[in-house]
Amino acid sequence: MTDTAIPTAQALRLQTLGTHYAGIAHDLSNLLLLTLGYVSRARQEIDPTHPAQRTLVSAETAAADAVALTRRVLNFSRPGRNSYGPIDITTVVADCVALLRSAVSKTICIELETGAPVSLVAGDRTEFQQIVMNLCLNAAQSMPLSRGVIRVRIEPALIEGKAFVCMRVIDSGCGMDEATRASMFEPYFSTKDPGVGTGLGLTIVQELVALHGGQISVQSTKGIGTEFTLHFPALEPS
Question: Which domains does the chain have, with CATH numbers?
Answer without folding.
Answer: 8-233 (3.30.565.10)
